[in-house]
Amino acid sequence: MRLFKVLILFVLIFTAGCASYATKKEAFPQMYNERPLSILVLPPINQTTAADAKEYYSVTVAEPLSLMGYYVFPIEVTSEILKNEGFYDTELLINTPPQKFRQYFGADAVMYIEILKWDTSYYVIGGNVKVSVDCVLKSTISGENLWKYGGTMVLDTTGGDGGVGGLAGLLVKVALTAAQTAAADYMPLARRANFMIMSSLPYGKYHPQHNQDGDSKIKIIKEENVEKN
Q1: What gap in Å lies between CA 78 and CA 91, rounded to an integer?
Q2: Is the Cβ–Cβ distance between 55 and 79 less than 8 Å?
Q3: Which of 19, 44, 34 is nearest to 194 (CA)?
């Protein structure tokens, strides 16, 4: 019995040790050193096969950033200006020194977003829809990374059997899964992913808790499941 308790304690300690936590100030010290006020969000880099992912995702970015206390340059206007200058894809701007965005826009920081997954998955009797992104915020003063975070939202679209058992129930479940997966709306998932990711940012000047959250702990997570509708 004593050995069993020791083993349980070891498992609890090991599990706690595996979880990755840090205070915001420990994770992102440069954010507190430079304290950017305004953020220029570049059009996302789309690494998926979903052609419309970039446009859909873009509309979910400004709100969570604003709620965290930052001034966000209007993303549609930014995109138009860049297109007029011949930059249709953010990939063309990757090697541009961040300081240039301060020169042209007056921004304190520039955000790069990479869409890694925007897809549906099926397995034998189930399915899901997944949105995965990585974000990096760079200083337009020092050129250094101020903040970096990523996240994944997964919506389980597995259907029920409709109360029918056996092979008929299995067929019903497969049909419902296909229908729910096909009808899943990516926008709420992208919005949830953004709110989860942006909540790790230190609060900006326009938030009442600005410069008071340095000791707030964040969990470094990469994936979060969303309950079925």
Answers
A1: 15
A2: no
A3: 44
